[in-house]
UniProtKB/TrEMBL annotation, chains A, B:
Belongs to the NADH dehydrogenase family. The keyword Transit peptide applies. Its EC number is 1.6.5.9. It comes from the Bacteria. It comes from Mucilaginibacter mallensis. InterPro entries: FAD/NAD-bd_sf (IPR036188), FAD/NAD-binding_dom (IPR023753), NDH-2 (IPR045024), NDH2-like_C (IPR054585). Keywords: FAD, Flavoprotein, Membrane, NAD, Oxidoreductase, Transit peptide, Transmembrane, Transmembrane helix. This is NADH:ubiquinone reductase (non-electrogenic).
């Protein structure tokens, strides 16, 4: 069993180094506790900018930050690469890929993963985009498809490689659709003199009647206008039936031939075993009380996308956005110290600072409480917020340089296929080198 | 058969988008020819900085440049991702992964790959570093090994994960050894409070009696001093017998237990089929005349690492360095136009501008003709030369920012394990996400 040195300090085990887990660890700096963070990656991913990695306008590593480096100065912090399979709450331990670990307090901050709603074909053939490897795979697929299109002489054979269908018109889908459209409108013909931008079709699909469902009607309408101007076709009130890698079909009978379906239509929480099914809410989230504690457990917390704090004010829990995870993380960090000191805890109250979504190069929509606005100024706010939310000065500077370059000439970026993507596995191009010998 | 539109211009097919191929294509801009470049990657790799990608002090994409983007403005340029398997010179075609392609002139600029000298175990277990995927795999291995070491409680079990053996003390091996040593000396204990720098051992191995064999004795001696000061152990006059993933053995009977053997001990040219064996020189290079034409072929050229221009002045050909490839590329580009116009060609004469190698953070050695110097000033020259040799302003700025950050606090970089590396294949961490469900 892995444990820290015998210490009189309680051990707080944080599962997940995302927005929420990071905040818990930060709050516990210089507090009378030991902190052990586990994550399957050794870095934190700034998910809001993944779509730029997918289009190659940002390097993958500029939106990732080494967890060890981030907490390098925090004396009570330890990190291990590990995945948690089970919580043994009667023993106060977790089963992990590096052995059984005992905890005094456990924070489940495992986030969410893509929800394919049980459709196995879609899960196999469509591309999710919730991690850096997934964004890179998507990038490789997009640019490989363009290279395939270049080789096709017959229009019907070429079209599926130039048709992109994005399912899910939340902020992720909208931002990605706008970025692909801008690539088509301003970069494609320079990089691929063999292709015509009019041959590239981009569809944004949702079963709701409008895009950006969680945002205001005003934001929806403005986004739809911007998307239209960019040349994105909206298919609303449309429910996907299936996708076999060649054709995507809808419940109304419509179908589109495409080699690229990108799925951002839903998320579900990532829950280890050991949590009773009656505690699992819709969207695979763990039910918690108003200090983020898993119902019935006095030393296990759940925060962020994996949690559902059901109260009279929040009958469906909170939205799965970064600000919720960040604020819950801060709340849990403080409350753990209160509990240890025998002090009163502070209930969690979400301070909704608003929503932003960007469409294309210099437009965005913003709902900031009662104030709703759209256009260039909203975009400046979006830039500002995302740049300063990044972890680390170096990352901020690198992203900023990339954005300046992209803004000046549209043509920034690393549209590089580093490894050939094939479904099921990522083929290592080292294998391709050996073919020459 | 793939071909361009019927055009009265001759088609120049360039196989390889490295230093040499790039220059041929550049020379042919606005000339009365069509250019088709083929490469297995859609980007050019700036190999001299690969070792920084391996250590995570540079993002992988900052040393890669999209070939399509680079030549986006060149009207007579086309690009395809393809690998060439065979030259059919009697037909003037090449067999490729995208079909048979006819050429009027062919330039073989395929470069070199790692030479394991026939040792199959070493080839399987040791890590080469001649491409971005290989540098990334090496990075993942290094940092995965450190994570493994953290989990080991017994010193003997931990040591192999903390022992790094670099075989080949040319510039690549020396630069990488210096970088690993600096990581150990200045960053390791901050990121990994569980590890001690004295537990990490770094060996630099060569069968020659001194490091940097191609450089001057003065440069060798200075490098050896710097390496000693950084704590790298030199094993010279040492020939590797085998490596099984756990222990590397030498012909003198010595052995070292290590999980990381990095092989930069030799290169060999990458030659497609169809070139007669009597034209293949030592190091798997194609013999050419003094205008880089393959002996006996009047319309096929070979340049750079894959070529051996054997003359009285150059009885062993030229060194496999970037400047040779660049200058040969320029020469071939110009001579192709001369040949087309029926003008006299210009023989190739290599202008040796000197050699540089860097050791650690701010030391380098420089042989610039008669002038040989070492230390901080040589390092400034190294920085200057490499920064301005990069392709593209954005890449230069990004690399510069990274270097500033690294210089100020040693602690730049993205020591990120994006995908878990296992020998044989690269396991996609997307597979690891599904384990949670």
């Amino acid at each position: 069993m892995e444990s820290t040195d015998k210490s009189k300090f309680p051990l707080i085990v944080i599962v997940g180094g995302g927005f929420g887990g990071l905040q818990v660890a930060k709050q516990l700096e210089d507090k009378p506790v030991e902190v052990l963070m586990l994550d399957k990656h050794n870095y934190h991913t700034f998910q809001p900018l993944l779509y730029q990695v997918a289009l190659g306008s940002l390097e993958s590593e500029s939106i990732a930050f080494s967890l060890r480096k981030n907490f390098g100065g925090q004396k009570n912090f330890r990190f291990r690469i590990a995945e948690v399979s089970k919580v043994n709450h009667e023993k106060n331990t977790i089963d992990t890929t590096i052995g059984e670990i005992a905890y005094d307090y456990l924070v489940i901050a495992t986030g969410s993963t893509t929800n394919f709603f049980g459709n196995k074909d879609v899960e196999h053939y469509a591309m999710p985009m919730k991690s850096i490897p997934e964004a890179l795979n998507l990038r490789y697929l997009i640019f490989q498809n363009l290279e395939e299109a270049v080789l096709k002489k017959v229009k019907e054979e070429r079209e599926p490689y130039l048709t992109f269908v994005l399912v899910g018109a939340g902020p992720t889908g909208v931002e990605l659709a706008g970025a692909i459209a801008e690539f088509r409108n301003f970069v494609l013909e320079k990089d691929y003199p063999e292709l015509k931008k009019d041959d590239v079709k981009i569809y944004l699909v949702d079963f709701l009647p409008r895009v950006l469902g969680p945002m205001s009607e005003q934001a929806s309408k403005a986004s739809q206008d911007y998307l239209h101007k960019l040349g994105v076709e909206l298919l609303l009130n449309a429910k996907v039936q299936g996708y076999d890698g060649h054709t995507i079909t809808f419940e109304d009978g419509k179908s589109i031939k495409t080699k690229s379906v990108i799925w951002s239509a839903g998320v579900m929480g990532v829950i280890p075993h050991g949590i009773s099914k009656d505690l699992v809410e819709r969207g695979n989230r763990i039910r918690t009380d108003n200090i983020c504690r898993v119902i019935g457990f006095d030393n296990v917390f759940a925060i962020g996308d994996v949690a559902a704090m059901i109260t009279d004010d929040t009958p469906k829990g909170h939205p799965g956005v970064a600000q919720v995870a960040i604020q819950m993380g801060q709340n849990v960090g403080k409350n753990i110290v209160h509990l240890i000191k025998g002090e009163a805890t502070v209930p969690f109250v979400y301070n909704d600072k608003g929503s932003l979504a960007t469409i294309g190069r210099n437009k965005a929509v913003a709902d900031l409480g009662k104030i709703k606005f759209q256009g260039f100024f909203a975009w400046l706010i979006w830039i500002f917020v995302h740049l300063f939310s990044l972890v680390g000065t170096r990352n901020r500077v690198i992203v900023f340089i990339n954005w300046i370059g992209n803004y000046i000439n549209y043509n920034g970026g690393s549209r590089l296929i580093i490894r050939r993507f094939t479904r099921g596995t990522v083929k290592n191009t080292t294998e391709e080198v050996t073919k020459y010998k």
